[in-house]
């Protein structure tokens, strides 16, 4: 290397306190300024106000909770306990009448007796009492509920309206054997012999009269209305 060039470089870079220091600094300064000016300036722009997000509220689903203590199985109705009593009275055309009765539960008869008798005892419960009026050709009866409770007396009253009827078959002015069938609403309710005094329920009937006596034969139908307490004698000639 050339000695002069070496000395020049040594003088320029190797002696910081030499007269060339100013030149070195001046030479370096532009480079630093260039670097400073060429560095990009990053400006942070203020961000816009943050967007407010409304939380979505979900409806609460309530699930019913069953309390086993509050749930009870349906219980069968209990049968009444104890013993009670009952009485039976009868009115026929507004006056005291004579009748018999039977107390039933389902298809079973549990008691029988006469209406007008002293009170009879029976186990508490729900029954039916069937009252049948004495002497009725049509077997008229009343079927009524009877409720018996412990220590109490129940009363039932049966009301009947009745009439008396005689149907007589005649031939040449004489009574002859024959028969009269009473129908009510198309149903047979009684069958009466010729000339037989009978007690039947009041109301409207169709009376079918037939005769089969020797050479006398035939039948007739008669419409008949009977009022309460009425006594009717019906003569039918053949």
Structure description:
With 238 residues, this protein is mainly beta. Among the domains are: 83-160, Immunoglobulins (Immunoglobulin-like, Sandwich), CATH 2.60.40; 162-237, Sandwich (Immunoglobulin-like). It is 13% helix and 47% strand. It is built from two helices and 16 strands. It has helices at residues 3-14, 21-38, and strands spanning 83-92, 95-96, 99-105, 108-114, 120-123, 125-133, 141-148, 153-160, 162-171, 174-175, 179-184, 187-193, 198-201, 203-213, 216-226, 231-237. Strands 1, 2, 5 and 8 form a four-stranded mixed sheet that branches. The chain has a four-stranded antiparallel sheet with strand order 4-3-6-7, with no helix packed on it. A hairpin with a 2-residue loop joins strand 3 and strand 4 (108-114). It is elongated, with a radius of gyration of 62 Å. It starts with a helix and ends with a strand. Mean pLDDT is 82; it is low at 15-42.
In short, what is this structure?
This protein has 238 residues and is mainly beta. It is 13% helix and 47% strand. The relative contact order is 0.12.
CATH topology of the domain at 83-160: Immunoglobulin-like
Count of helix runs: 2
Spans of at least 5 consecutive residues whose pLDDT stays below 50 are: 15-42
CATH superfamily of the domain at 83-160: Immunoglobulins
Largest sheet: 4 strands, mixed
Mean pLDDT: 82
Q: End-to-end distance, in Å?
A: 183 Å
Helix content: 10-25%
Question: CATH class of the domain at 83-160, please?
Answer: Mainly Beta
Question: What general form does the structure show?
Answer: elongated
């Amino acid at each position: 290397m050339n000695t002069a060039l070496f000395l020049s470089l040594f003088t320029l870079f190797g002696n910081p306190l030499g007269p060339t220091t100013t030149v070195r600094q001046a030479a370096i300064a532009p480079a630093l300024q260039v670097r400073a000016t060429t560095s990009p300036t990053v400006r942070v722009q203020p961000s816009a106000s943050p967007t407010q997000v409304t939380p979505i509220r979900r409806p609460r689903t309530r699930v019913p909770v069953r309390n086993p203590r509050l749930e009870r199985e349906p219980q069968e109705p209990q049968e009444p306990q104890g013993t009670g009593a009952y009485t039976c009275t009868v009115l026929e055309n507004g006056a005291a009448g004579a009748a018999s009765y039977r107390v039933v539960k389902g298809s079973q008869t549990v008691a029988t007796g006469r209406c007008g008798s002293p009170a009879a005892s029976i186990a508490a419960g729900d029954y039916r009492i069937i009252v049948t009026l004495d002497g009725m050709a049509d077997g008229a009866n009343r079927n009524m509920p009877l409720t018996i409770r412990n220590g109490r007396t129940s009363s039932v009253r049966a009301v009947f309206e009745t009439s008396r009827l005689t149907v007589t078959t005649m031939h040449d002015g004489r009574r002859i054997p024959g028969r009269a069938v009473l129908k009510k609403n198309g149903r047979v309710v009684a069958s009466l012999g010729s000339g037989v005094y009978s007690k039947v329920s009041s109301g409207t009937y169709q009376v079918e009269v037939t005769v089969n006596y020797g050479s006398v034969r035939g039948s007739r139908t008669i419409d008949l209305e009977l009022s309460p307490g009425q006594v009717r004698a019906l003569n039918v000639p053949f």
